Amino acid sequence: MKGTRDRLWVRWRPTLLVLCQAGPCRVKLLSLFCIVLVAILVISRAASIMGWRHHLDSPQLPSRHQYTVLINTWRRNDLLKKSVAHYTQCNGVNAIRVVWSEPEPPSNSLHLELVQSVEASNLHNNNRHNHKISFQFDTHETDDLNNRFKPLNGLHTDAIFSIDDDVVVPCALLEFSFGIWLSAPDSMVGFVPRMHWVQSMKHAVEQEKYTYGGWWSVWWMGSYSMILSKAAFIHHKYFELYTQQMPASIHQYVREARNCEDIAMSFLVANATSAPPLWVKGRLFEIGSTGISSLQGHSEHRTQCVNHFVSVYGYMPLVASHVKVVDAQHQWLW
Ligand SMILES: *[C@@H]1O[C@H](CO)[C@@H](O)[C@H](O)[C@H]1NC(C)=O
């Protein structure tokens, strides 16, 4: 072995010596460095040199390759204006609808302002979208949380992106996650995961009890079984199931507790699919002050909801998952 290595050295030594003897060695090393740099640049541009282009940004999108943005608002007109203005900028948005659950309908001036903002952006984005985004309020006279999942009339898409007025999802992330939903249109696809944890049982005969797991427990354990509808893609067929087929006792529970409509939707989808939802990695931006989830005792109410829904269903339909979907373009190695 040693002999081989020596022979190799003898063969390479003259080359190395020539490299460093013909002129200053630093110049040689510098040119070597330049060659490596150029090689790296060439490799990184290989996609365009090889003609590996894709057509993700095709401007002509049929409606089934578009989605409806459904904004939930609670009398926070400044947040609503910001949200609407933001989503008019995103590709793939077919329509923006706002769930308005108040005894008073939205004021004419608010309505006019929002319509004008959407129209202005339609004009501005004419080349990019090749279609016009429509805007509409869906008004309900009660503040029932079930209103959020009332089937929408005059819809042109199957995909609904359900979003609270105080959360903003960047357009690129929205388009990426819509692509994931297209691959799994029966699943809820979104950004806010939650988990149901099994409580340790005191007596074997008791029905299993569950604890609602917030963000920290999901982060710590890497498990989730729900994606909250505050930022999620949901197939519109589940709105019909929610309103027309889901047990009335769950509607009543949600109405009276003024909470947990999102958990009810997670149960419904899990019961229909026997599959977990999909969590997409991405950063959301919170605008405005903190909402209901910062209220005291929120987590206990959510735990009660989970256990109540389990008793209605007669079993626990939620399925845990450890899958987190990431954008491969932003992953450096594999
Ligand atoms: C769960 O799904 C089954 C099968 O789709 C359905 O028959 C049943 O009514 C659902 N349960 C509830 C409580 O909605």
Automatic annotation (TrEMBL):
Which residue ranges does UniProt annotate as crossing the membrane?
29-52
Q: Which UniProt keywords apply?
A: Disulfide bond, Membrane, Transferase, Transmembrane, Transmembrane helix
Domain annotation Glycosyl transferase: ranges? 67-325
Q: Which family is it part of?
A: Belongs to the glycosyltransferase 64 family.
PANTHER family per record:
GLYCOSYLINOSITOL PHOSPHORYLCERAMIDE MANNOSYL TRANSFERASE 1
Protein's recorded name: Glycosyl transferase 64 domain-containing protein
